[in-house]
Structures are given as C-alpha cells and as structure tokens.
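A common beginner's mistake is to predict each chain separately and then try to dock the pieces by hand. The better habit, illustrated here, is to supply every component at once so that their relative placement is modeled jointly.
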Amino acid sequence: GAGVSQSPRYKVAKRGQDVALRCDPISGHVSLFWYQQALGQGPEFLTYFQNEAQLDKSGLPSDRFFAERPEGSVSTLKIQRTQQEDSAVYLCASREEGTAKLFFGSGTQLSVL
Amino acid sequence: AQSVSQHNHHVILSEAASLELGCNYSYGGTVNLFWYVQYPGQHLQLLLKYFSGDPLVKGIKGFEAEFIKSKFSFNLRKPSVQWSDTAEYFCASSGFQKLVFGTGTRLLVSP
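With all components supplied together, the output reads:
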C-alpha cells in the first residue's frame, strides 16, 4: 500500500476487555515497530520486529501486552484485560532499509473506560 | 541508557518570527538524530535526520538542525515560521535499532 495502515482508528474498551490492534506496514519493509503515545507525551517504544522475529520487546509494559507478526508482514498488538492506564494512541511504524527512515501510521486511539 | 530531552514544551510565535527548538540527547555510542513533526490530526512525519558528515542538516519546509557533539544537542531552527508550521515537534535518537523520542514541543504560530 501507499503507507502504513492501522486499524481500527479508534477503539473504546471496557476495563478488563481484550483488544487487538492491527498494523499493515509498507510492502517490503522488513522492520516494524510499535509505540505507545500517551496524551501530552512523546511516543514510547514497545517492541520491534525484523520480519517475523520479535527482536526487542523491552518496552512492553506488562505481560498483558503481546505482539506478533507471524508472516513477516501484518502485525497485531494485543492487550489483555485492559486497564485505564492503557489508554493511549498506539503507533505502528515500518522502516525503509538503507535509510533508517521510519514511516508511521496514523495510530489507533484506545480509550479504556 | 538512551534518552532525549526537549526543554520547551509549548512555544507560541507570530508569523515571520524565527524558531529554535532545543533538543539534547544522551547516548554513549554512535547516534542517529531525527526531528519529526505531527500536524493536527495527522501522523508523524520526518522533517530531517543526521547520521554523519556535515553537522548542519537541512530538511523539508525550510527547517534545519545543527548537531553539536560537544553539547549533545540537535536543535531545530527555522528563520521565519508560518501559520502552517503549527504542530507538535519531536526530537528522536536511535542507537542500534529503536528510536527514542523526546516528550515533544507544541508550536503555535499566530497569524
């Protein structure tokens, strides 16, 4: 596609509910990143994939957060038993090899009530 | 640990004023530095980047940044801002793989 696509654009969840956020990276981009952006803050790194391999998950805040990229393209970020503090914009980015330039999606705004 | 500091959280300028946004990074190894912009309702976009070479980097829309290694700084500048520059600006650094962002500076340009 033309850019990084994320869905849904908005998600409202009740506390305790599980959610799944999808990211379609730019075709051919090997690297994929997930970031969490709380209101008034900069994006915080969550996890990074190279193809289907999750090389760094040091930013995942708890074991309720899980990310996968089984075929090395589309990625899903899953949050189990959502809490209010999980409310944020979740950004996905893919990287153009050779330039280290990240292309960001528009994000999924998650609100946990 | 890798970190980025942006000291100006909110900046208000009139059109045609000059802009300088501060950014300091902390990383012991080879560092790549970036400025990203987020216009209202839009996704993050790359303004400019520094990897090596000329420490004065020119980006899109008339922005430039200067890498000063001795000060661990990478300040963003623009000689004359426009109303359309109203946005949030993020400085970022990357070491081995991941990009680390500052907390951002919200710029409001009044016409």
